[in-house]
Protein 1
Amino acid sequence: MKTNRRGFLTTLGVTASATLLGPSLFDFKLLAGTPFVRPDVGTLTATDPILIGYSTAIAAMQALPATDVRNWTYQAGIHYSPSAMPMTDWDMCQHATHFFWAWHRMYLYWWERIVRKYSGNPNWALPYWNWTAEPHLPAPFRVVSSHLYTSQRDPNMNSGAGSLPATDTAYTLPMSSDFSNLDYYSAQSAVEQSPHNVIHGDVGGATGWMSYITMAAMDPIFYLHHANIDRLWDLWLAQGGGRADPTSDTTWTTQVYNFYDENGATQSMTPCDILNAAAQLNYEYAGEPAQVTQSCGTIPIWLFRYVILLVVPFPQPPIGPDPYIVEVSLANVLPELENVLSNPLQQVLLELDGVQAAKPPGATWEVYVGLPAGVAPQPSSPFYVGKMGLFSKGIKGHGTATLRFNATKALKEVVNSGGDSAPISFYSKGIVVNGQQLPGNPQSDVTVTQARFFVQTRSRQ
Ligand code: C2O
């Protein structure tokens, strides 16, 4: 089947112009046969045609006129630019909105078609960086003479001495509750925050491109990071349990975004066009389970309601490099909390409001709920609720962020041991260097205005 596609593309390569690819886009994909397989970069050597092709494409795209929509910098600008006078369709990336997964899927898809063209390899597919399995920056991206390299990264990540902490690459229990979320928007924002945001900061470090939304998509590793985030969307759905795309939310299903194809022609899409990567976009990820088929208009089985349990104002000094502890008394809500914690249909979420840093901190914070005084913070403990990392929203100039953590397990531990105090505490961290977790060296403090504990209740629609 692979050979069929190659043959098809070779014969039709020249005639498959904008007109053919425009209105009959989906016919073309059906004709194209089996999906492209996005490989795990960890399985590729530096001389693999995929990485050679990527390098060839980067050079070719950089050489295009700056006004060509397929130019490397133009494409990065579609994500976000540092420019005060952005070009058409620039600064479009969706962060801390309901469109994070969908917009980035569309963006990668059209970008991949452009790279495929300029790679000279009709079978080119974007590799993913499975950081959970390999937390070092993939070796071919660390070769100084390569187009896959940039000096604009944390020097330890670029030297190979540095790696991502396990807290930052986790998306399942025990270290992360991302995949425990049954509703799309909660799972999406949990994944966006960590691993997504925190890995941006880990790779970019104090001043590197990946730390800055305005520069991130200039780094060739950006797209492999995002391919993995996109793969997580598939993997989350594959967990089942009623997990579903928000196919009945018409605000979500009808949102239109513009991109450019490999011929420079404008292409528009809505989330309904991209629910099923293999069937609609003709790609899948090496090793992923069967993709779950979704369609717009379907009513998800779960309905979610949120009620505030407790509001906690934050003290004045912002969160910095030192341990930061906010006392929380549960005394007034204890009976209610005990009820909630014994109901399998209810969860308690911790929300941090008004989160803002003056610039990308280049550090992340382990967040705990209920960690007893004098007990050392360990991400393996039940009091660990997740990693705080800022990217885009939450950085001055991009608005304040709202961050959520699942505090159910931590509060259960507090209540079961007869406690009525659930301090929220923060410990700044850097990356791992030569096997050692470094403390954080934040380039900026983080202000939080208040915390709120929410009860999430789910019921069948
Ligand atoms: Cu829109 Cu990881 O960035």
Protein 2
Amino acid sequence: MRYITFALAKGRLAKKAMDLLERTGITCEEMKDEQSRKLIFVNEELKLKFFLAKASDVPTYVEYGAADIGVVGKDTIMEEGRKLYEVLDLRMGKCRMCVAGPASAREYLKHHELIRVASKYPNIAKDYFYNKKHQTVEIIKLNGSVELAPIVGLSEVIVDIVETGTTLKENGLEVLEEICPLSARVVVNQVSMKMENERISRIIQDLRRVIGEGV
Ligand code: PRP
């Protein structure tokens, strides 16, 4: 029997994803050692492997089949646009993709002005402004702390994740438009889905059961 490999997005999601998997009977003791610098973990009994990767790399590993199954946010799935199957909404890590900025930026949006949009998600921002709103904008790619951009005058608005809204509020910014809801998803490699259908379907079914979606 070959190994089924999981790629988990590093960070807040990984721990929650492992907790869910554990409730389906899939455990990985090795992974619980937080001191460890190991990158890949094995459950020999169940013939499973797990590795943690930067969230934005998870869809890449899954598309190329280096991982059969991935757990990653819908934001990353949309941004990366990889060829894979999105099979399950884990309904955790819930948040929203939004256009945000100072209240004064509402006017620019209303009148479809040529504004600058800063984001860690240039593809999502482009798709939203060009295809949904039919507004021409200049997109500026940033890698973090995007809320800074409208404060220091790099852009009029941002496209970013809003969870509690605290970051926006503490910086005098607000949600101007909502793009879509987000949460953690399970994705599967398209070939693995066919070649290992039985084992992968069982895993998905078990996850569905523990998150209370029945079978
Ligand atoms: C995310 C996001 C916001 C913040 C939203 O950033 O980009 O900055 O969380 O959360 P809130 O609405 O609960 O305040 P993250 O922590 O991933 O850091 P980064 O922006 O530096 O990447």
